[in-house]
Specification:
Layout (H helix, E strand, L loop, with lengths): L4 E6 L9 H9 L1 E9 L10 H17 L5 E5 L1 H12 L1 E7 L4 H15 L4 E5 L21 H9 L50 H14 L4 H4 L12 H5 L5 H11 L6 H22 L21 H8 L6 H13 L4 H14 L4 H11 L5 H12 L14 H8 L4 H6 L19 H7 L14 H16 L2
Parallel strand pairs: 1-2, 1-4, 2-3, 4-5
InterPro entries: Crypto/Photolyase_FAD-like_sf, Crypto/Photolyase_N_sf, Cryptochr/Photolyase_FAD-bd, Cryptochrome/DNA_photolyase_1, DNA_photolyase_1_CS_C, DNA_photolyase_N, Rossmann-like_a/b/a_fold
Protein name: Deoxyribodipyrimidine photo-lyase
Catalytic activity: cyclobutadipyrimidine (in DNA) = 2 pyrimidine residues (in DNA)
Length: 475
């Protein structure tokens, strides 16, 4: 008896292990795995250059895992999915849910159109520990503060589902491959700025598993103490793997719990709460779809931004004259990644010291980050700007010199990405403008020539930001 054909639509779940949609499709019958480059979404919703680089290599890895059976398409899924159902004579379509507003609207329309043709359609949660629609306050309201959301809403809800193993054997349909080639999707950048990424990253399910294993064995036991030091590998660096679904948060959650003998370990709790912040970002985006473009706190609609283009450009190029800021922006350009502590520092400097609209920073990160994630990116930028839910108060302005001296005490991080400062002594590595002339000369640093002078006075710009905020509060 011929088994029915089903389509498995891969999106942000580029893995075989712990993939509920793939498991369900395989149980249903023979499988046709597909990926669609969605051209119907708005330009600002399209992945940035760095993310597309990752996506290309992640799809390559997934296709290898699927023994070359992954079929690639480009176009509007609302039209393509019904067409493919007809061409493959598919009796069912399976996918794992996405939670961005545009994706929810798209998927809802596709589900409705498939049901009208009597094609079975099922979707699953494969990317979140707790779906946003399932967590509510006791009065039915939506959480807007992280700690009660996580401690009361999530941890007191049902436990995250346990990961499912890879299918023992995937039965692929014998239908012909009618898709296009991966290369024809033109995901790889035309410029060679991404050439160094392969020295730092291994996209795909195997790379994700390796990063998780390395973290558990080398850094997890000291996570709370080491996670803020950018010169050491104290974090998991799993964010791009999680975004593309090469590993599920459920796999990470239980792998960490299994690795610690004591469930009340402070490092374990600290790391799991960071997974909780990822969940909170998706929760906010689901309930407040305008999060990426509009101030969560409407009071900031009256804020007066300076938006000096030359200062913004200096920031993007790591040429602000503030060493820890420049190091972070150069790390981003060279590796497609930036340490989380440094993300907060560079974000605060842009929004508060330079008074550049947080949305400009969000867009730059969207294009340059390998882990660019609509929910996390927008929620984090609004947090640092002070305009978001559970945001840092606006008057909390990171002093990049003090931050550098605290978390990069010997300037190892700065010297790695700002090699022109490599000979500066620890005392002045984070504030070279204060160094005596003989110290600068000995280090070979000429401010304004081989390293820029600061584009903003930290004390004066801090006060300017506070004055702007006070003026906004009065409106």
């Amino acid at each position: 008896m011929t088994q029915p054909v089903s389509l498995v639509w891969f999106r942000q779940d580029l893995r075989v292990k712990d993939n509920p949609a793939l498991q369900a499709a395989n149980d249903f019958g023979t499988v046709v795995p597909i990926f669609i480059k969605d051209t119907s979404i708005d330009a600002e919703e399209q992945p940035g250059g760095a993310a597309n680089w990752w996506l290309h290599h992640s799809l390559t890895a997934l296709n290898d895992r699927l023994n070359g059976h992954l079929q690639f398409f480009e176009g509007d899924p609302k039209k393509l999915i019904p067409e493919l159902v007809e061409k493959f004579d598919a009796k069912a379509v399976f996918w794992n849910r996405c939670y961005e507003p545009a994706a929810i609207e798209r998927d809802t329309q596709i589900k409705q159109s498939l049901k009208e043709t009597d094609c079975a359609v099922s979707s699953f949660n494969a990317s979140l520990l707790w779906e946003p629609m399932s967590i509510r306050k006791q009065d039915g309201g939506v959480y807007k503060v992280f700690t009660p959301y996580y401690r009361k809403g999530c941890l007191q809800a049902s436990s995250p589902r346990y990961p499912v193993p890879s299918p023992e054997r995937i039965t692929y349909s014998s239908v012909d491959n009618i898709g296009c080639s991966l290369s024809s999707l033109n995901l790889l950048p035309t410029l060679d700025w991404a050439a160094d990424f392969t020295n730092h990253w291994q996209p795909g399910e195997k790379g994700a598993a390796k990063h998780l294993s390395d973290f558990i064995h080398n850094a997890a036991s000291g996570y709370e103490d080491q996670r803020n030091i950018p010169s050491v590998k104290g974090t998991s660096r799993l964010s791009p793997h999680l975004h593309f679904g090469e590993i599920s948060p459920n796999q990470v959650w239980y792998a960490l719990i299994d690795a610690f003998e004591q469930p009340d370990n402070k490092h374990l709790d600290c790391y799991l709460s960071e997974l909780g912040w990822r969940e909170f970002s998706y929760y906010l985006l689901f309930h407040f779809p305008s999060l990426p473009t509009q101030n969560f706190n409407g009071q900031f609609d009256h804020f007066t931004w300076r938006n000096k283009e030359d200062e913004f450009t200096a920031w993007t190029k790591g040429q602000t004259g503030i060493p820890i800021v420049d190091a972070g922006m150069r790390e981003l350009w060279q590796t497609g990644y930036m340490h989380n502590r440094v993300r907060m520092i560079v974000g605060s400097f842009l929004v508060k010291n330079l008074l550049v609209d947080w949305r400009k920073g969000e867009r730059w990160f969207w294009d340059c980050l390998l882990d660019a994630d609509r929910a996390s990116n927008s929620a984090s930028w609004q947090w640092i700007a002070g305009s978001g839910a559970d945001a840092a108060p606006y008057f909390r302005i990171f002093n990049p010199v003090l931050q550098g001296e605290k978390f990069d005490k010997h300037g190892e991080y700065v010297k790695k990405y700002c090699p022109e400062l490599a000979r500066m002594p620890d005392k002045y590595i984070h504030k070279p403008w204060d160094a005596p002339a003989n110290i600068l000369a000995h280090a070979g640093v000429v401010l304004g020539k081989n390293y820029p002078k600061p584009i903003a006075d930290l004390k004066a710009s801090r006060q300017r930001a506070l004055d702007a905020y006070a003026e906004t509060k009065g409106k």
